[in-house]
Automatic annotation (TrEMBL):
Organism: Forsythia ovata
Keyword match Transferase: no
Cofactor: FAD
GO molecular function: cytokinin dehydrogenase activity
PANTHER family per UniProt: CYTOKININ DEHYDROGENASE 6, GULONOLACTONE OXIDASE
Entry protein name: cytokinin dehydrogenase
Amino acid sequence: MKFPATQNSILPIRSFIVLLIGCLAINLSLCFSSFPSSIKTLNVEGHFSFDNNEFAARDFGNRFRFLPSAVLHPKSVSDIATIIKHIWQKGPGSKLTVAARGHGHSLQGQAQAPQGIVINMESLSGQEMKVHTGRFPYVDVWAGELWINILHECLKFGLAPKSWTDYLHLTVGGTLSNAGISGQAFRHGPQISNVHQLEVVTGKGEVTICSEEQNADLFHGVLGGLGQFGIITRARISLEPAPKMVKWIRVLYSDFSTFARDQEYLISTQNTFDYVEGLVIINKTGLINNWRSSFNLQDPVQASQFKSDGRTLFCLELTKNFNPGEADKIDQEIDSLLSRLSYIPSMLFMSEASYVEFLDRVHAAEIKLRSKGLWDLPHPWLNLLVPKSKIHSFAERVFGNILTDTNNGPVLVYPANKSKWDNRTSFVLPEEDIFYLVAFLPQAVPLSTENDGLEPLLSLNKRILDYCEEAHLGVKQYLPYYTTQEEWRAHFGQQWEVFARRKSAYDPLAILAPGQRIFQKAISNL
Ligand code: FAD
């Protein structure tokens, strides 16, 4: 069939327009895609994924979602170094940034890289861990390893790391980039105080071993460094003999001052408990019955008279480690320690658990929450470090006033000794010798307009932060979240200069950890 003359003459013009639009589209996508094809040709042992990367745009906070252009699943340290070096060599001409992703348990997109490359650090886990026994035992691990796996491996040698987080399904690289704090920190310091050596890939793609003795500035910078100076690929972690069992104790207080005084006593005295934490309980019902399923009440008759409903209570949580055969001796030590405390006498709950069961306790809660579809809800958490001299004003204003119930998630309060922290690391602490970790850990019910909805919980956090600011409490955020560099400068205070100097030394183009929103990637006009 022949086209009429007019149509015949239009055809080439139409084809040309289609071609032009096609070329424009290709060019535009090349212009706007920040992912250079040269990266795809790099020689890596692992692989890149360009599709189905939604997991890398998610985290535990479940509020921020930025898709990367690609995810690298490395098989070796040199895969990580190759990719970073390539971006570094491209200079400010490339927009690409790189985020290490541990287990993605950040709260506000800190392990995400909008349009950049996420490195899935867990691809490097599951490889051999080397436990070194002897007088000063340690374990060499990959940074993408979960702490729970490290615990199981070390227990084969009767050993365990000294300092923990409350939840062990987090990676070594993720917690060392923050601090790693739990109820053992008062004795051993945080996890960042219990590391001998690191292997780090800097923002220039250099693989560097660092420790107190070697490249000490990088070593200290990376610890608590929010991923800003390098990607930790391996760590050497200090170990101690592991106990088999723990005595697990909870006692209740109705008065914050007495509760805090006892906590401070326990973290300052010798031969004390092995773990000291605390919980605030506001307006909760059925508390004692809930605990009864896993704890024995020492005085059930007296306890049955006690009405917890609606009151603000403070629970001191303690453990004492022991091995079979030592139970009697440990019971005596516990009795002696408890006799020096001023809790409500009938409110003493005792239990025994294996060391693993105790350390992995939050995972047991995770399994229950997952089965009800409640683990993947938004988590507007707020973690604060409050100086000892201000904790009483803080408690008076916040517990029972700004915060009127704790039904949306636990609120932890416990003190730590600053002397167990190393002030050469990047971690920022309040100015006093003792400070409290106060952790508000709620989950938000989607679409709820009640107090358990996301917006009311976020405005509650804001009210708490505003109060801290107005009352000049000298509070620092843990797992900090800020959106402007001005706020970051204020957070770091006098440490900002060192932090910024380290950034220009180890990651001058600001390629690493863009999700922390501290520095902007240097970009020239393309
Ligand atoms: P990710 O979220 O994947 O990463 C966190 C940050 O570190 C990101 O900026 C990322 O880019 C960077 N990063 C990750 N890996 C590396 C690496 N190898 N090298 C350099 N940078 C890296 N914290 C405590 O201190 N104590 C607790 O008791 C505690 N309990 C928690 C309980 C739960 C249920 C959850 C969800 C979190 C808890 N946290 C606690 C917070 C936790 O320590 C941090 O969220 C930590 O960052 C999570 O580790 P991750 O492996 O998931 O890291």
